[in-house]
TrEMBL record:
Record's bilayer topology term: Multi-pass membrane protein
UniProt keyword terms in alphabetical order: Coiled coil, Ion channel, Ion transport, Membrane, Sodium, Sodium channel, Sodium transport, Transmembrane, Transmembrane helix, Transport
Organism (species): Macrostomum lignano
Major localization listed first in the record, in broad terms: membrane
Protein name as it appears in the record: WSC domain-containing protein
PROSITE patterns membership: WSC (PS51212)
Organism lineage string: Eukaryota, Metazoa, Spiralia, Lophotrochozoa, Platyhelminthes
GO molecular function terms noted in the UniProt entry: ligand-gated sodium channel activity
Subcellular localization(s) per the UniProt record: Membrane
Length: 1049
């Protein structure tokens, strides 16, 4: 412990000794260096090795924090559990539920009393929608549902499409225009749409205008005029409106449209009345001459006579005469053989005769209604009266008040069962669509008048014109002078043109008269051939139609209001899949199952589903027996008639009964949802079972155990959850006297809220409401899908303050909220609710992804691994299918319990047709009969599907996770790294503890020595400013002695 000179050691001595004997590499070499270079080298070595250790240590902690897991798969000890199986048809409505049943008497007498032949029975059961048979029509309740839909669509869209239009003084929303309150006080009258004048002096000829404006007279003056003419009834109705004495503005008084005046009014016509002697023009009834020479056109003569209220006109080659009667003169058509000077193709009398045309249907009536525009949309609405300038006769005409533009959000057409009504609504379209049905962008209407310049700018001299446009009148339902847009519109375009090649003929013609939305593509010029053409032909080439959707397909609230207010479950029960007509055959483990072994469930995502009730079959089965059991279901979709046709209203009915968009019901028979016992049947778990196919589903029952880590947390425990899934076992009748009576009342009602209420009550009344359970269904197994759905529903409800009908809803939420379009709970439907609903629908996918990041999966769950095998079924071939069809018909009760449903009748029909074909000798079978049968056989196969469900293996797999890098591995790796980089071990740590003890004792001894010296100084001994080196060494003597005693002990 002493130095070579015998002097006591300092504090550095224990450190030097530690560096000499420690197991940590490099410290001894460092302490032995006697020069600076050696120490620098070993300091560098030590820093490098300890830096390497620090990096190695960081990688070990990084791996540990990632919490990797190790997955193990072993044979499970779980017993096989047969799953819950749901059959969810893709067809929201079926033929048997929407069509009238077969007439009972006709079936009974034909089968059992009259014993008709097979061919006659085929006629009884025929189900061909294209045949036009009187008995093939929708039942009354289906008609009532369509009536409710049309009422809802009309009332909702009448508000939504114009809810942002507050000023009724600028435009009108309805054909009648009763709501219009603007200041327009002029009526519009029209001439003839067509006019031809040949070989004219274009600089001198001025055609009469096609469209004219007449100043309205005061309403009370018109009433007094009618009174003076003996029409007191209509006159008094006008006076009863209590217009002010100065009121002359265009109006459409409620209950008094212009059509009410048609019985007392004459109308303009233009028809040939005969060829009469020239002496007619000198009679008292033909005493006015419009033109004596210089007649430019027939239309000019007609307008001149019409303005003076004459009923007839007579023309010679250049003369025009007007008259009120042609009585007493005989027709001599052979005499009229002279061509008109203004038009060589027309006949204008002769030297001794005149051609007579009738221009008004009845000139003696007190009122004349002027010509309307070719565009039907503006040939109605507000009107007014005016007087002829020349004859002072009372006239009336429409004022052409434009229609208001449809809101951009609700750009659609209200549907109708009546084709004429549907056409009329298209003819009034004022939406914002500006793309043709071929996807080409529309050109602004204002460019139509300069179309020649546009075409020349694009094609140069490649395209030429045979005529020159003088005037062009463009009319659309909402077009105002000076405005321009490129929206699709019903349109009337009347053109005045003059030939520029050859004779200078004038022609007025209708270039386009479309009662459906059309437009001209911006790039119309690209498809014009390099020719010289007339404008009339050009317009026919370049106009294209536009597709405008129907509102019930675009606006969710139209159909959702019916579902939410009436109840989607009630609609599904009445119009949806009926296992009486849909379940062809069913078996489980060799035992027959029937429709009574299924529970009908109204699923918010999938519509009606049929849940197989397995308890009756599995109650006393062992796990091995369950694993060996097979569930087989043969299903008939009942989606078309015998020829594969369906009704034109199928889309409407489908959208009302179920919130469905884009499901391919023609190729998919049903969705099979197979889940573990007591699990919710999420739509994501469904698999499509195609028509004309058999699908075998093989299952393996597996258990999954996850390890919950900070980076991959999972739920240790889950709670049961209760969703509202209305269910029922019994099917209601779709026809009885009570149902038909209720349906008739619904169709007669004009009050849309009353219609909804009556429909709901009628559906509840059918077979009593006791068969229906609307309370929540509890599911014991909760999974991640539940968390995701809860997240989406909360996002939706927090924004819209209502419940979305297309998502599963927990029962407890109905205590505070109701469905978004439930009229009984929320009152009238608001545009804000509709807007919020649409916005949230578009965000559901976004919410789903957000929820996937937030939601945890259960740490332990059981599920099925599945294998799907599909192949064609029943794969029928012509007459060889007779045995299959016979059994199929028997399964549906043929001859022993005949069903009157249309679906079953189509099967009877095809079976009897196969039998008839089989009984016919091959040589006598016509090609047409064989082809018809094969076509109908293919249609039947496309309505059949089969599903089988069974175990794949009796024992499943158990997949578990454990830590791939636990804490003990981390400690071991840290020790290995210390040994690798610096040789440090557990003994090195002991040596460090020993060093710290020695240093602590030495430091304590020094502190004691310094304390004694301070005590001596305090007793009066002089303090020296410096001490000899020997005295300084002596200060450490006590500390060194203590170290020696500890060492010797």
């Amino acid at each position: 412990m002493g130095s070579s000179s015998g002097a006591p050691e300092g504090l550095s001595s224990p450190v030097k000794r530690f560096c000499g004997y420690t197991t940590a590499h490099g410290l001894g070499r460092f302490s032995e260096q006697s020069n600076l270079i050696g120490r620098v080298i070993w300091v560098s070595f030590l820093l490098a090795t300890y830096s390497g250790f620090a990096y190695h240590l960081s990688t070990l902690f990084e791996r540990f924090l990632q919490a990797p897991v190790l997955t193990k798969m072993t044979v499970s000890t779980l017993q096989f559990e047969f799953p819950d199986v749901y059959i969810c048809p893709t067809n929201a409505v079926t033929m048997s539920r929407i069509f009238k049943k077969l007439p009972q008497n006709e079936v009974t007498f034909g089968e059992f009393f009259l014993k008709k032949s097979v061919e006659e029975k085929i006629g009884i059961y025929s189900f061909d929608l294209s045949s036009g048979r009187y008995d093939l029509e929708l039942n009354d309740m289906t008609k009532a549902l369509l009536s409710v839909l049309h009422s809802m669509e009309e009332i909702i869209m009448s508000y939504f499409q114009f809810f942002d239009i507050a000023d009724a003084a600028k435009c009108r929303r309805t054909p009648s225009g009763e709501e219009y309150s603007g200041n327009v006080s002029s009526a519009v009258v029209y001439g003839f749409t067509t006019m031809t004048v040949t070989s004219i002096n274009t600089s001198a000829f001025t055609p009469s205008p096609y469209r004219g404006v007449k100043q309205c007279m005061r309403w009370n003056d018109a009433a007094q005029k009618l009174l003076s003419l003996g029409e007191s009834g209509l006159a008094n109705r006008l006076l009863a409106l209590n217009f002010s004495d100065s009121e002359s503005r265009c109006r459409s008084p409620p209950g008094l449209p212009l059509s009410e005046f048609f019985p007392i009014a004459s109308r303009s016509v233009f028809r040939h009345a005969g060829c009469l002697p020239l002496a007619l023009t000198n009679s008292s009834s033909f005493n006015f001459t419009c033109y004596r020479g210089g007649l430019s056109s027939l239309e000019t003569c007609a307008e001149c006579c019409g303005r003076r209220s004459f009923q007839y006109m007579a023309i010679s080659r250049q003369d025009c005469f007007c008259g009120s009667s042609i009585g007493g003169y005989e027709n001599s058509s052979s005499v009229c053989n002279a061509s008109c000077l203004h038009d060589n193709s027309a006949i204008c009398g002769s030297e001794t005769a005149v051609t007579v045309l009738q221009i008004r249907d009845n000139g003696s009536r007190p009122l004349h209604v002027a010509n309307f525009s070719d565009l039907d949309a503006i040939s109605s609405g507000p009107y007014c009266f005016f007087a002829d300038e020349l004859s002072d006769k009372l006239n009336a005409a429409f004022c052409e008040i434009p229609y208001c533009q449809i809101s951009r959000t609700y750009d659609c057409i209200v549907s109708s069962e009546d084709k004429l009504t549907q056409q009329q609504r298209l003819s009034r379209y004022t939406g914002r669509r500006n793309v043709t049905s071929t996807g080409r962008r529309c050109m602004p209407w204002s460019q139509l008048s300069t179309i020649e310049q546009v075409l020349k700018a694009r094609r140069g001299s490649e395209v030429g014109f045979m005529d020159e446009v003088r005037e062009m009148l463009i009319q659309t339902p909402d077009r105002l002078e000076g405005e321009s847009d490129n929206y699709c519109r019903p349109v009337s375009v009347v053109v005045d043109s003059v030939n520029i090649h050859g004779p200078k003929d004038f022609q007025r013609f209708s270039a386009i008269d479309s009662e459906v939305p059309v437009c001209i593509p911006e790039d119309f010029w690209a498809n014009i051939p390099s020719i010289t053409i007339k404008f009339g032909y050009l317009f026919n080439m370049i106009f294209q139609t536009c597709n405008v959707p129907l509102c019930y397909t675009e606006v969710p609230s139209v159909t959702a209001t019916i579902r939410d207010s009436v109840g989607e479950h009630l609609l599904a029960r009445q119009f949806g899949s009926d296992l009486n007509a849909g379940l062809t055959e069913c078996s489980f483990a060799g035992q027959k199952c029937t429709k009574d072994d299924f529970l009908n469930v109204a699923h918010p995502q999938l519509g009606m589903c049929h849940k197989f009730l397995k308890q009756r079959f599995t109650a006393n089965m062992t796990s091995t027996q369950l694993a060996e059991s097979q569930l087989s279901i043969k299903y008939f979709t009942d989606s078309t008639d015998s020829k594969g046709q369906t009704v034109s209203n199928i889309d409407k009915l489908t959208r009302v009964v179920r919130d469905s968009r884009g499901s391919d019901a023609t190729q998919v028979a049903f969705k099979a949802v197979i889940v573990p016992d007591s699990s919710f049947p999420w739509a994501s778990n469904g698999v499509n079972v195609a028509t004309a196919q058999r699908m075998d589903v093989h299952l393996r029952f597996d258990k999954y155990s996850r390890l919950s880590t900070s980076s991959r947390p999972c739920l240790e425990t889950t709670e049961p959850i209760t969703y509202r899934l209305p269910s029922w076992k019994l099917f209601t009748s779709n026809e009885d006297s009570g149902v038909n009576s209720d349906a008739q009342e619904i169709m007669r009602s004009s009050n849309w809220t009353l219609k909804l209420s009556m429909l709901r009550n009628a559906l509840l009344k059918l077979n009593g409401s006791s068969a229906l359970t609307v309370s929540g269904s509890q599911f014991k197994v909760s999974d991640r899908e539940n968390c995701v759905n809860t997240y989406v529903v909360e996002k939706f409800t927090n924004t819209c303050r209502c419940l979305p009908g297309m998502l599963p809803i927990q029962e407890e939420r109905f205590k505070k909220l109701s469905y978004c379009f439930d009229m009984y709970s929320r009152g009238n439907i608001s545009a804000n609710t509709e807007k919020c609903y649409i916005e949230q629908l578009s965000k559901i996918t976004q919410y789903h992804f957000e929820a996937m990041n937030e939601c945890k999966s259960p740490c332990s769950k059981t599920d099925f691994s599945t294998r799907y095998i599909t192949y064609p079924w029943p794969n029928l071939l012509s007459v060889q299918s007779l045995d299959f069809l016979k059994k199929l018909a028997s399964d549906f009760g043929y001859r022993h319990d005949i069903s009157l449903m249309r679906g079953a009748s189509s099967i009877y029909y095809l079976y009897l047709k196969a039998q008839n074909l089989s009984d016919t000798p091959v040589i006598n079978r016509s090609t047409e009969a064989i082809q018809s049968f094969e076509s109908e056989l293919a249609a039947l196969q496309n309505r059949l599907a089969q599903l089988t469900v069974q175990a794949w293996q009796s024992r499943g797999h158990e997949v578990s996770e454990e830590e791939a890098y636990p804490a003990k591995n981390l400690v071991a790796d840290i020790g290995g790294a210390l040994g690798l980089w610096s040789g440090i071990s557990i003994l090195t740590i002991c040596e460090l503890l020993e060093l710290f003890i020695y240093l602590g004792q030495a430091l304590a001894a020094r502190v004691q020595a310094q304390s004694r010296m301070q005590s001596k100084n305090a007793d009066g001994q002089p303090e020296e400013s410096a001490r000899p080196e020997s005295e300084m060494v002596a200060l450490d003597t006590d500390a060194i002695q203590v170290q020696q005693r500890v060492a010797s002990s």
